[in-house]
């Protein structure tokens, strides 16, 4: 124990390096497992040193909390379906935000500790970021899990409400800073919690992937705030890494969806439209439909096939059947690739993880920028469970809520096959002209059942 305390700073430094290696590993499917291991090792070192340095820790309570958290986390990790990963991540962010709020409140109520000017600022910032993160993450969880409506909260009163809450939060925070009045700190905390709701509720469900990324950044900054409150260097470093990486990812996501980052941060009020249509109505138009056998025949006789997977694939857990079908096509000499939109699924990287779970070869998986120019030379595109990411309205219809959002150019392929349960609108509530093109054939049904039928037909 003495040696650990003596070299605490060095061990913290090693933990920080391991956290950086974690981010590097998680940046690619091949390095994800190693990245997770670096993270676990780094966190283990950080917890060990923190326990050794703590002046009078209650080991019983700490161990009980850690065991309870480990059991709950292990159970959730083993049982959560891939389709529920986005809302699970959102809920985890809410826990980080709540922790920041509780630690800040405990610190301001600690009568034995005098807070300096800088520490009062740290407490204020850490608490209000934590409060916003907590409520915003709960709302994001509700929208992603369909517990709350995906449609945005609208009305001329929403923006004034946001401004009043923000000013109230800053005002009472300033009053606490000047007077150390605990009542003001509690009121400031209340304002931040309510503001979190009003920042996310006006954002539509179609923009939730960006919101999840942004909340990841918020949770990192909240953790960094906790680090300042506890005077823990490694927590400051880890929180800053998560916060900054989440901010960079949010920027990339906004760019991919043609969204303004300020629009997301300020609750949809800084320009740009929500991705959710006002009514979600679908106008009846003629379209062509076929069977799984028809689809298998067309792809079995093609030279090149590009598969566009979407959330519907994850819902039906069709990735394994799809991998089997793609392998059968490859064995027949068909070139098969997967095209991944940056916001495919419900969160960044969702579809990559799904395909990795089915052991799809990495070389067959290509990002939007890599494959978009090849669609015009592709014989058949199989769109399975996806909708908004292949909607040509994003390029052609200036009145569309998703106009300007980069899409996969599936409509440029020679033939398009769309596997879908019905002609209902997608997650963004928009009809899709791709479904009514002469080159498009709709195959209706559960994605897994359709793909399994295609496998049988191809055999």
Strand and helix layout:
Elements: H1 2-6, H2 8-26, H3 32-53, H4 59-79, H5 85-108, H6 117-144, H7 158-179, H8 182-200, H9 208-230, H10 233-256, H11 261-265, H12 292-300, E1 304-309, H13 311-316, H14 319-331, E2 335-340, H15 350-357, E3 365-367, H16 368-371, E4 380-384, H17 393-396, E5 415-420, E6 440-444, H18 447-458
Parallel strand pairs: 1-2, 1-4, 2-3, 4-5, 5-6
Give a brief outline of the structure.
By secondary structure, this protein is of the alpha/beta class.
Secondary structure category: alpha/beta
The tally of domains stands at 2
Number of strands: 6
Question: Biggest β-sheet, characterized?
Answer: 6 strands, parallel
Strand order of the largest sheet: 3-2-1-4-5-6
Label the overall shape: globular
Tell me the distance between the termini: 64 Å
What ranges have pLDDT less than 50 throughout 5 or more consecutive residues? 269-280
Q: Total number of helical segments?
A: 18
What is the overall pLDDT average? 84
Q: What's the alpha carbon Rg, rounded to whole Å?
A: 25 Å
Helix-strand pattern: HHHHHHHHHHHHEHHEHEHEHEEH
Strand portion, in percent?
5-15%
Helix content: 55-70%
